[in-house]
User: Fold this.
Amino acid sequence: MNLDEAVIVALGGNLAGDYESPQALLEVALSRFAQAGLPVVRRSSWWSSAAWPDPTANEYRNAVVVVETQQGPEETIRTLFGLEAEFGRLRGEKNAPRTLDLDLIAHGRTILDTPDLILPHPRAAERYFVMGPLSEIAPQWRHPRTFETAAQLAKSASIGRDSYATKS
Assistant:
């Protein structure tokens, strides 16, 4: 796989919705990616962490996937928002507990800064719960702006680093 063309999606959640656990909901959501035009070609293990910024909220499950798609960046983000809605995601308070959070981290080497979409994701490089799983499946992926690898970014990412409990 050419990592310069990688479409990278981070997913997470800490509410189970209609499922037995947040991880069960995330597994079902992942199973819907292909029919949404985003077949998964690489997938990290599940990572667990304390909620951020409020560590007293339910623990999160996080993962990162690389998908193949013919969709452009704007269509990809609309598809991801549609999947979030399908699984009960309600947008409102920033960083509130949620059933499903899908972030488009990168769409190849595309750099965008529009009111609707910023690529690469503007805060992904700071988040250990994104860079840790990404470095697991694509350590040599390079950030389109800084050119640092996922492995390098995982070492420097600070948000969520101290709260990690397990990788399964």
